[in-house]
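User: Could you check the structure of this?
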Amino acid sequence: MNRSQLIWGIVCLAAAALLAVLNLALPPENLMFMMGDINMPWVPVIVLGIVGIVLLATARKGGGESIAAAQPVVVNPEKAALNKRLETIAWALFLIMLGGLALVSKEIVPKGVWSIGVGCIMLGLNVARYFNKIKMSGFTTFLGILSVLGGIGEVVGLTKLGDAMFLILLGLYLIGKPWFEKQKLFGKAEES
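Assistant: Sure, the predicted structure tokens are below.
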């Protein structure tokens, strides 16, 4: 059983159900998903529902024992310590940036720059892991890309880019997942 597919399948179905309830309960002008000049608020519900069903249907493939359970996990203490240090640096940078957000007025820094900064911190952490031959975190990589693209969209003036970008990146991740697993780029840092 592939746990990440199971979890993401449940998350997608829950999000689809929540959006479906909101579509039924709220007036059409309160939920916007524009495709061209037409409001189509049911598109995310359908896409998330299909993705959730596909994830749940394929989570069982591979049958029974997982590869990770068959192979013992070898922990490299040097890489685990380096990963902890890299995570500490990333958290420090995030807190410094958060403090800067509190100090600097919103008129000085354009909208979206903070999102770009947070995304760069997350992506920088994973780039440092990659160059030190430590497995990257798929979660922070995904959030980092989403944050950078959403921030760029805000800087340019595309404020409704976040939802569409989330769905596109989730779809691209699902398409590329077999390649990522084959390359063994993502996983737990302790297993590096």
